[in-house]
């Protein structure tokens, strides 16, 4: 079953020039890029994107981080695209959860600045794609 997922290269990934690396891994996996765009994120978009984390201790720090520089937003499509990209990304904590070979496992050290975002469920993907790419 073909799915779509929302992928972000976060400000740390753009700053570290890892956009190409992330795109290569998405393409090498066999997933399709449906949309790909550099964006600056205002506080409102950031808060909507991360609404599920509102109230958590790291929420305000997370909004600071995600609005700190340009991001690259993409819609990625393919069979089981949501789980497929989550596997490419690796677990949230790049050291303790992300396996070597994953994007976070290969390039990350900190839980907040963990390079990429990928939707976590079909419901999240639909909500996030509508938020970032309303015309799709
Ligand atoms: P993800 O789905 O793997 O990205 O993880 P979550 O949805 O749980 O968290 C969203 C994002 O918030 C993560 O990717 C991190 O950038 C950040 N984050 C999650 N947990 C923590 C935490 O304990 N501390 C900090 N500072 N940031 C966190
Ligand atoms: Mg998440």
Automatic annotation (TrEMBL):
Binding site for ATP: 10, 58, 86, 92, 104, 114
Role played: Major role in the synthesis of nucleoside triphosphates other than ATP. The ATP gamma phosphate is transferred to the NDP beta phosphate via a ping-pong mechanism, using a phosphorylated active-site intermediate.
Major localisation: cytoplasm
UniProt xrefs under InterPro entries: NDK-like_dom, NDK-like_dom_sf, Nucleoside_diP_kinase, Nucleoside_diP_kinase_AS
Cofactor entry: Mg(2+)
Subunit structure: Homotetramer.
Record-annotated active site: 117
Entries under SUPFAM superfamilies matching the protein: Nucleoside diphosphate kinase, NDK
Entries under Pfam families matching the protein: NDK (PF00334)
Enzyme class of the recorded protein, top EC level: transferase
Gene Ontology, cellular component aspect: cytoplasm
Keyword Repeat carried by entry: no
Protein keywords: ATP-binding, Cytoplasm, Kinase, Magnesium, Metal-binding, Nucleotide metabolism, Nucleotide-binding, Phosphoprotein, Transferase
Membership in a protein family: Belongs to the NDK family.
Domain Nucleoside diphosphate kinase-like, residue spans: 2-136
The name this protein goes by in its record: Nucleoside diphosphate kinase
């Amino acid at each position: 079953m073909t799915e779509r997922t929302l992928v972000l290269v976060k400000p740390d990934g753009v700053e570290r020039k890892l956009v190409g690396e992330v795109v290569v891994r998405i393409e090498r996996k066999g997933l399709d890029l449906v949309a790909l765009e550099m964006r600056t994120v205002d506080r409102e978009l950031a808060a909507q994107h991360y609404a599920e984390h509102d109230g958590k201790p790291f929420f305000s720090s997370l909004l600071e981080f995600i609005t700190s520089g340009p991001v690259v937003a993409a819609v990625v499509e393919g069979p089981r695209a949501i789980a497929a990209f989550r596997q490419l990304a690796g677990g949230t904590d790049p050291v303790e959860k992300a396996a070597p070979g994953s994007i976070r496992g290969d390039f990350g050290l900190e839980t907040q600045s963990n390079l990429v975002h990928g939707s976590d469920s079909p419901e999240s993907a639909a909500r996030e794609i509508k938020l970032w790419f309303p015309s799709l």
